[in-house]
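Trying the structure run again after the queue cleared.
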Amino acid sequence: MSLNTALSIAMAGLRANQAALSLVSSNVANAETPGYIRKTTDQVALNAGDGSSVRTVGVNRELDQYILAQLRTEMSGAGYASLKSSYLQQMQSLYGDPGSVGSLEYSFNALTAAVQALSTSADSSSARIGVLNAAQTLAQQLNSMTQGIQNLRSAAENGIKDSVTTANNLMKQIANINNQLTANPLGGTSTDANTAALLDQRDQYINQLSQLMDIRVSTNGANQVTVFTGSGVQLVGNEAATLRFNAQGTVSAGTTWSSDPSKSALGSVMIDLPNGGSIDLTATGAIKSGMIAAYTELRDKTLVEAQNQLDQFAASISSALSDKTTVSPAPVAPATDYSLDASKLLSGNTINLTYTDAATGKQQQITLMRVDTPDVLPLSNTATTNPNDKVIGVDFSQGITGILNQINSALGGNVTFSGSSLSSLSVASNPAFATINTLSTTVTQPPGTLADGSTEFALFTDNGSAYTGGITTSGSQITGLAGRITVNNALIADPSKLVAYNSTTAAGDTTRSSFMLNQLTNASFTYGAQTGVGSAAAPFTGNLLSYMRQFVSQQGAAADAAKQLSDGQNVVLNTLDKKMSDASGVNMDDEMAHLLALQNAYSANARVMSTVNELYKTLMQAF
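Done. Tokens:
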């Protein structure tokens, strides 16, 4: 080996040592910098004639791509689980601990206790006022809980808006860095130090994006990435797509999301692609994890179901006291027709018909529901909580002839309604096709009708109006009822009507108070499947307290499950984060050992240069 070759190799070794020392210095300085990936030099051996030299061709990031991909998946899951748990814990605080002061169950039990006291001391004015105070406390608690749930839905709507803004900024930054990257002219996947720092920064942006939604990432030979949603919609390449969200200013029980933009009162996450196309990510379910998915699920499902549960409770406790069912007696020969009074039906009230089909021998349950506009027809069978009935909406705005034509057309000749007045209808079955089993009406007592001889009365109202379960073009009256339920003002003005159900009722009569107590504690009701308690085919049936305990328990179990999931996700995330740190982070002990090795190598290379210099001097002195 010539002296020139030896000198050249030693100088190359010094340059490689200097590059490596620079990276060790950078690693040590950034040991605590979030997202920093340990750097090493990318060195290759070169043929130097009769020896081997060294060349630094770039900087390697000691990154474990497999662990990174796992980490991002768990970041999405943790973002989803943590946010959902946080919201459910907040909602749980609205219900309170079962039986504790301030809880929904406590308020309901206080009402039943007050009614119990009234039933034993009906002539006591303090007992009557006690019932009204307890009823007002329960109504106000339902109002407050509704406001709390809608505040959470509004926060979720704003959360989606903020997440979309953040995601757009992150995607722009990722695309911007992509466009600054080029392939290493010396080959391989290594790069220079400045570019490596950009890659660290880009990975941080991608990690933050993964907390918002589930993503997939692919990398090309120039270290440029393409980011997709988990379902395959491209978010970022050399250009960034744009997310947009039409947030609504006010969120209430009546504002719901629909995949039909003309019917939706809440925002959808849309993506505008660089090629000019757009996709509704909410309607297609393209975002399945991350904070955006959690916000959307909470806004459109979890919190809506919680509101439905409260609304159903408010509707049931109101109807339990105000709805009066009158059964039409079977005709006595030689009469063959049933008599029916439908004159007092309000919107949402029903005519209930059961008949036996002559052909099949099976009973058919028909519910004829009053509506006041044809725009809501036909009604769904889910308009009632009965899973076995067929619901037929009847537009009462058409007059007696139109009403009868609608009913008879729907019944197809099996049963025929006739008459010239709603107060005196005749109902006859066609023996060849059907036989009537039962016929009745269910009518709501108006708030002002308190002493007409009926024990049924309106203790609760819908902001002063009767709650009838009516369906209009703006939706069902039950929607948001828990936020509007109030105690009947006519009773507050005259508490004696809690006892006096007609003009001759004695002051100590317990007929109405006993009716109230039975309806609140013993009477059984069926609750709609939209509450999530039971199903459409097998809805939950029970008294008011059992239903309340059922949905309160369900919410508690959901909050506990969400917390367990969040805790589990955090354990997995922390484990992967540690693995990532061990594989790609800076270990000070390793860096110090590496520094010592480089110091020795630098000294060795310098020693070679010094020896070559001495040899040159000796050679020059020989001439």
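Residues 336 and 428 are 7 Å apart (CA to CA). Worth checking whether this holds up in the mutant runs.
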